[in-house]
Design goal:
230 residues, alpha/beta, 4-stranded mixed beta sheet, 7 strands, 26% helix
Length: 230
């Protein structure tokens, strides 16, 4: 929800193993999202979609069998704000959609994976037996800019990494998707003097370069705390 979700590496969908159900992960997400406020601009206007468009998208998702609102879904401050109607003003929002329903048809999959460039994400859950559905969903995605594999199981990490094609992938204990700068290199050895920015060759090299996997194997520092909201 950083930058009100208006960043290329925003976590627009969370594919959560059922093991996480026994934790308070969703409750922690909700609590952290609730700390964002228009007063300190840790949540704010959405430039690419209106409030009504977000609400319409929420309603469409909630019509999927088994879908439910986890938190958010309402206008910021109950509508008591001065953000023009041509912009969006919504609370950080998360909606759960069952993975079997998500992959059930191309139409539903397109709806679930529609990018709302704002503080909005879909959450789904999978079991070990549903791993093929997860991998199928990853393969069906149209955009593969940034992803994260959060796990301390090397076998699970290897399975996901070997069956996905995201350009920049964060993998490990925290695997925070802070952005995709590793793929934005400028030329041989990253030397900007060899960039040729704007040329066909520069575009080909930048977007056809190697895949970047950023590992975070730990240990997590004892004094680590949640970074400030942005």
């Amino acid at each position: 929800y950083a930058c009100s979700g208006q960043k290329c590496s925003a976590q627009s969908i969370i594919l959560m193993h059922e093991n996480w159900r026994s934790t308070n992960l969703v409750e922690q997400m909700k609590a952290l999202a609730a700390q964002r406020s228009l007063d300190d601009l840790t949540v704010g206007p959405i430039l690419s979609v209106t409030t009504q468009q977000v609400k319409d998208h929420v309603e469409a998702l909630l019509r999927i069998p088994g879908a439910k609102l986890l938190f958010g879904g309402e206008e910021l401050n109950g509508g008591a704000h001065s953000i023009p109607a041509c912009y969006g003003a919504v609370q950080p929002t998360a909606i759960f959609v069952p993975i079997a329903e998500m992959i059930r048809s191309p139409k539903v999959f397109a709806l679930v994976t529609t990018e709302i460039f704002g503080p909005f994400q879909v959450v789904t859950e999978f079991s070990d037996a549903e791993m093929p559905l997860l991998l199928e969903g990853l393969e069906r995605l149209d955009e593969h800019l940034t992803a994260a594999v959060v796990s301390n199981d090397p076998t699970f990490q290897q399975t996901l990494l070997s069956h996905s094609v995201n350009g920049t992938t964060y993998c490990g204990l925290r695997a925070r998707t802070t952005g995709a700068p590793q793929n934005h290199w400028f030329g041989p050895a990253g030397d900007p003097r060899a960039a040729g920015i704007g040329t066909k060759e520069a575009i080909q090299l930048t977007w056809s370069c190697h895949r970047e996997i950023v590992q975070d194997v730990g240990p997590v520092p004892k004094d680590w705390t949640i970074p400030p909201r942005s």
